[in-house]
Write a structure and sequence with these properties.
heterodimer, A: alpha+beta, eight-stranded antiparallel beta sheet, two-stranded antiparallel sheet, 10 strands, elongated, B: alpha+beta, two-stranded antiparallel ribbon, 27% helix
Chain lengths: 161, 166
């Protein structure tokens, strides 16, 4: 009887170790993200893409304009959003207030310690135009390489403005 | 012949090294997971939380469970990643949660004028206990909830100030 318990314990320990390694890799190195929704069309498909994201760049300050990043939402803390960085701290960002109806633009300087994020599909995206510049510490990962669907396999486009 | 025996020795030494290294790695992982997700210690210093926390530094225990479970409330001392300097972590008290109205003195050293704000959704309003010397939400605005790293609940050093915070 004890040998069964011991075996169960050993197997559980093995699973726990494997999970621990997976978790640390996922949280600090590299993770796979499912990005879906209309806000990053045409870069990311509406129905969802699996994209490899690395978590090292935000920690060492290597996130810049043109990168697509995963950011913890400043409005709903449990949610993460995928947007493109349009301005770093100190940059002047010009954006359309209401792209459907008018050509009116608004200009803002991104404050210290913050980034300005926008979805590629400005007609249907809740981003910094709605909730303002986002503190840099909320940037969690940078999207690197799309792995699914296979026809879109390849690096994420980096656009410099 | 000698080469073979060298290779054998090297193999067994390598195996033992890997075994010991993996034990060390597992131990470090356990420490890290406890430190990052359950409970950790920090040295907190500066004038912004006087008289609650000492100027020259207190060692406090921080728990990382409440903020993940959404169990933070006004009055909790939290450690938060600064919205103006992402490399810095600050310790302040939560004065208002999302939806609360917070009234604060705009210039406590000089005048009685005050302002009232509504804390936006997904944000918290943090202030240092020492309003005269604290850069907090009165300066950088409401802070997104996602920047909260943990809640300080117990001071362990100096020993004469040992006790629960709150």
């Amino acid at each position: 009887m004890w040998s069964i318990i011991r075996e169960a314990f050993d197997k559980t320990l093995l699973v726990a170790k494997a999970y621990g390694i997976l978790h640390i890799t996922n949280s600090y190195l590299c993770t796979v993200a499912l990005a879906y929704g209309p806000s990053m069309i045409p870069t990311i498909n509406l129905t969802g893409d699996l994209i490899l994201a690395e978590r090292i760049s935000p920690r060492i300050g290597k996130v810049g304009v043109g990168d697509i990043v995963i950011v913890r939402s400043p409005v709903v803390p449990r949610r993460v959003v995928t947007k493109r960085v349009v301005g770093m701290e100190g940059d002047q960002v010009t954006y359309l207030l209401d792209p459907h109806n008018s050509d009116e633009v608004h200009s803002i300087v991104v404050p210290r310690g913050h980034v300005w994020i926008q979805g590629d599909n400005i007609y249907n995206s809740k981003d910094s135009r709605d909730f303002g510049p986002v503190p840099y510490a909320l940037v969690e990962a940078k999207l690197l390489w799309r792995v699914w669907p296979p026809k879109d396999f390849g690096p994420m486009q980096h656009i410099s403005r | 012949m000698k080469l073979l025996s060298y290779i054998k020795q090297w193999k067994s030494a390598a195996r033992e090294t890997i075994a010991r290294a993996s034990i060390a790695a597992q131990f470090l992982s356990l420490i890290h997971i406890t430190d990052a997700y359950i409970c950790s210690t920090t040295l907190v210093q500066g004038p912004s939380m006087l008289p609650t926390l000492n100027y020259s530094g207190d060692v406090v225990l921080i728990e990382h469970l409440s903020h993940r479970l959404g169990k933070l409330e006004p009055g909790d001392i939290v450690v938060v990643r600064s919205p103006v300097d992402p490399k810095k972590i600050v310790a302040k008290r939560i004065v208002g949660m999302e939806g609360d109205r917070v009234t604060y003195l705009t210039e406590p050293s000089y005048s009685e004028s005050s302002r009232t704000v509504l804390v936006p959704k997904g944000h918290v309003w943090i202030q240092g206990d020492n309003v005269y010397a604290s850069a907090d939400s009165r300066y950088f605005g409401a802070v997104p909830y996602g920047l909260i790293q943990g809640r300080a609940f117990l001071r362990v050093w100096p020993i004469r100030d040992f006790g629960f915070l709150g």
